[in-house]
Amino acid sequence: MGPDAARRRFATVTFLFWLPVGLYIPAQVLLLTERGMALPVVAGLFAVHSVTVSVMELPTGGLADVVGRRAVLAAAGVLNLCALTAMALGTTVWALAVAMVLMGAGRALSSGPAEAWYVDTVQAHSGAGADLRTGLARGNTASAAALAAGTLLGGGLPLLLDLAPDAGARMAEATGGLVLPLSAPALLGAVVNAAYVTYVLCSLPEPPRPPATLRQVLRGVPATTAAGLRLGAHEPLVRRVLLSAAAVGAALATVELLTPGRAARLTGTPESGAVVYAVLACLGFLCTALGSHSAPLAARLTGSSEHAALASLAVSTAGLLLLGVTAAWGGPAPAVVAAVGYGLVYFGLGAAGPNENDLLHRRVDSTVRATALSVQSLALQSAGAVTGLVAGSLPAGPLPWLVGSVALLAGTLLWTRRAAGPAAGEEQQPYARKALPRAP
User: Fold this and answer.
1) Would you place residue 317 in the very low, low, confident or very high pLDDT band (cuts 50, 70, 90)?
2) Helices 113-126 & 93-110, crossing angle to 10 degrees?
3) Does 31 reside within a domain?
4) Which CATH number is 431's domain given?
5) Contact residues for 205 (Cβ-Cβ < 8 A; gap 6+)
6) Where do transmembrane segments lie in this chain (predicted)?
């Protein structure tokens, strides 16, 4: 398969994966609070999700490197379908915790295989020096576009159902209180996940692999996981990418936990708050798409992927600081400044991601590519879980926002020093090719 076809299929599968996430993001926190969950309980449920991802990231990344990308992606779609159904219908903490575990498992399974499939396919066609940044940027743009479209639909759907004469009440009465207007986005997301599984199975061809027995898988996954961990521990530039991912996870956890409640307080009701948050989230994801699209340009203007990552993360840090400062005041002017800060956070992260991953993929070979991406996701999720618990326990105001701002600033400062090697080593052969053993 040529690079153009690989880019299109990578962008499509990325869009289909993230569209359900966009659908449930605006209503998720509000649905949980409508079920009677306090904010610390909501933060705890998010932590269940993040811990599940953290525990499963490395084994599932190794699994994708051993048994193949397509089967692991399809399994992720099935788990996400079950998770969204449970999230929409769950009424108790235990049921919602199960939904978070399923969602975390699906996230862990999906956090590297699609990108690994794309890089493997392009390099198999065009060699190790093939352009990766353009396709990675298009994948990030597709995910941001899916999130933007999903948040608009997911934020507006509950309000439309609530405005229809007695529609919400009839829905709740017919289902014994299981389905509320705020449940509809998650149920729609489950349907989209079914389409995602079908597309993955039909459209992502892989080279034939030798049949893997259970014994081979049990031996191969730990070996591949250990290789990925050694890479993160011993290769300075990869370590910098991983620490930056942790900083981004802290920032995103802060924004995603605190913004819905801030929007609901601004408007006075959960349903209208979901709409406001959907608009904000859509703005953020559109800024992410714009930032991702401009990632190759940022690298050209700054001279390297490393300098582009530094500049992009600095923009995000400035935006998060604006969000924190404006939390102390009410009124239209601080709200406008906060919206600008929100957009800057996501624009900067969108521009940073493809440049950081371009550096990462030039340091690894196909035997540990999905594992390396899983280590990156593990850093993001683990930092997000800890930061969410800390921010959720602090009093309202600027202080919770400061937690994420400090973490993102630390991640930005990592890029003020260049890695050892010629010009960030962007044209070097993969560092791991000879040093990392192939899985049995």
Assistant:
1) very high
2) 10
3) yes
4) 1.20.1250.20
5) 1, 70
6) 12-31, 37-59, 71-103, 142-161, 237-255, 275-296, 308-329, 335-352
**Residue 235 falls inside a structural domain:** yes
Sign of the C-alpha dihedral, residues 340, 341, 344, 345?
Answer: negative
Tokens 């582009």 belong to 308
- Domain hosting residue 75, numbered range: 3-202+220-435
Show the DSSP H helices in 35-166 as ranges: 39-67, 69-89, 93-110, 113-126, 133-163
CA angle 277, 82, 94 (to 5 degrees): 80
**What is d(CA 239, CA 243) in angstroms, rounded to the nearest whole number?**
6
Q: Which residue in 251, 233, 243 sits closest to 411, CA to CA?
A: 243
Question: Is the separation of the CB atoms in 235 and 419 below 8 Å?
Answer: no
Q: Is residue 215 part of a domain?
A: no
Structural domain count of the chain:
1
Helices 113-126 and 39-67 sit at what angle, rounded to 10 degrees? 30
Of 13, 2, 25, 9, nearest to 277 by C-alpha is 25
- Token couple for 403: 């937690």
- Tokens 């489950």 locate to 190
Helix axes 184-203, 69-89, angle to 10 degrees: 170
Stretch 243-266: mean pLDDT: 84
- Residue (of 393, 439, 432) closest to 46 by Cα position: 393
Alpha carbon 249 to chain centroid distance? 9
Structure confidence by residue, pLDDT tens digits, 271-311 = 677 677 777 877 888 898 899 888 888 888 888 888 888 99
